[in-house]
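Z., the sequence and structure:
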Amino acid sequence: MSTLPSTRHIAFIGNYTPRRCGIATFTAGLCEAVAAAFPSASCIAGAMNDRSEGYDYPPEVRFEIAQDETESYSRAAAFLHINNVEVVSVQHEFGIFGGPAGSHLLGFLEQVKRPVVTTLHSVLRSPDPDQRRVMESLDAHSTRLVVMAERGRGMLVDVYGIDPSRIDVIPHGVIDMPFVDSNFYKDIFDAEGKTVMLTFGLLSPNKGIESAIRALPEILGRHPDVIYLVVGATHPHILARDGEAYREELTALAESLGVANRVVFHNRFVNEEELKEFIGGADIYLTPYRDEQQITSGTLAYAFGAGKAVVSTSYWHAAELLANGSGKLVGFADPQGIADAVDDLLSHPTRMTAMRKRAWRQGRSMTWKEVARRYMECFDRARSDFASPAGTSEPPQENRPRYPVPGPDLGHLERMSDHTGIFQHAIYSVPNYHEAYCTDDNARAFIFTIFHQLEHGGDARLDRLACSYLAFLWYAFDANTRRFRNFMNHERQWLESKGSEDSHARALWAAGTALGRSPNPGFRALCALLFQRGLGPVSHFSSPRAWAFTLVAIHEYLRSFEGDRDVARMQRLLSARLVDLYRANSSPDWQWFERIATYDNAKLSHALIVSGDKAAEQIGLTSLEWLIDQQTGEDGHFSPIGCHGFWPQGGEKARFDQQPIEAHAVVSACMAAFDLTGDRTWAAHARRCFEWFLGRNDLGLPLYDPSTGGCRDALLRDHINQNQGAESTLAYHLSRLEILRSTHSALAWRESSQPLRPASDRPPTHSASHS
């Protein structure tokens, strides 16, 4: 199992209480149990309606689906998407969805681009053509399937050819009840001093209650204190079609056999508290069902989990649950068998108590809390399965999809910016004022304006944006402390006296880039002040990434001021620190600077590649090559280390959430390596990392949104974080400019189309000491 956090947003689809049916009770029970066991999870429900007026649902039912309206299923799928649902839990029974064999559900599943876990409440051994077609489609559109008995798993494999590795067996949830003396509850329904037999659930002819009534005369002949309670309203569909005909038949049968005073009908739908009382007061639970092909019985599970002695016909669920002496099985329509089984239990109370204890102990693994835990494991597994690439090898070159570089679109950057600067975050594509501004993003944005103008020429819109971003950096710098502040609220109030070391170094990166590349004399003059005043404090910094950003800043600065001895001295100091860090932590199988690979990783390699020192350059190239190999998926695509757990040495590498800044860091470092070596393999690496933004990634989904010009914030296990913040959008646009920033780089982009090869398959061109 993955070590990632549990699934946070879950939708449960099925009938829901107060609708009166077993599926409704189960869906509500599961939704409530998961919500209780995992308080951080958001659990919502979608309820199937079989009548136009619907039902008076509880608050967790967030939307309703009209059973026979196909458009209603489409609207439900769209609702799940806008609410960022991560897993959809479908409760399947053929009769609760519209269309032949419930086929309307399939349209819903085709539109839900999320992992689906389908719980099958029926598994048919001999499906008709429509039912088989629906089952095959359920298999195709479900990430995982759940059944409540091992027999169900076997039938799915044998009858439908479903991969057993995709099937989980999770029992029906039960109320967690103590093992108590039934006499404690009997006074509630006037049964003091009596032996109580119980059947409960919605009444319908397939329940076989007439067999139990026919057994009563012989049972009473041996045990005259027995009373038989039949608890539950008539099934709504039966009531609508036949009225109370079945109940009246049972009443007439009891009268004809002379046992009417020993059969008590409670003709109502009981709530959970009442049900606990009825189950608690029962001595023997009867399920005399008539149909063998019943793979699930919620009423049987409830009684069994409460530690009741059970007598049941041998339908599939009962045969499996009551094996090994945990209950008594009888034939179908066999009143004599029922009478003998009841007599055996009541005549041997010690044996009956032992049976009850076995059932109760086994039932501890079936409580709703335990079932919720197992479903959450299933949901997490489904997300992991859904995120796994379908293939394991690179497709042939002629069949590989192409990812053309989109043209420039500054629309989202303009919407994210005002006269103060660029906003940090977005809600979808709308700026989020609550989290306002930061130096980190304004530094990136200012760098982008410089590169964009070099690639695409002057632009009055861009000049205005660049002025705002640089003005923010100037205001962020505190001349007294010689440090940059980072976070500012929407009222233009600083939220800290000084920012992080990383944000300080990114501001220097922006100033150095302007000094090295910008033709604007005003920008250069102001950035010279920032660079000169802000460089000194870096010598006291402890953050390796701050050292790295500063080294990149120095590299840019030295394009114009190569003879600056003080800056060159800082370059040597910081390079030596990174080299020492690498030598202290690296080994042949861990060619990295730290004992954990975290964020913006390639920037460490990039810094040494541009350090101007031959030994440091070799370490930069070697570590970058290793990092790329470790972040290459099985089919050759870029698969960066995720931010949920990162990658500790010797531990599990987090696969998600993948961040756009990781792709940009590698693109930028690879282009620096290409500039240094002229090796077009580095341009190929940059190309593939850039294609991560366009859909060549673990999910095959694009992060760049051509409709807005923005980039979505993260690649999650099974979907995209739809917010388009500044960091992500700038990571995309900076990456795009990096790979197109010169004629020879663009040529390398076009020509370097061979698949990625791991370092072990290439002759070594650079080496670095691990001592």
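Residues 1-5, 389-399, 742-771 have pLDDT under 50 and may be disordered. The CA atoms of residues 618 and 767 lie 6 Å apart.

Let me know what you think.
H.
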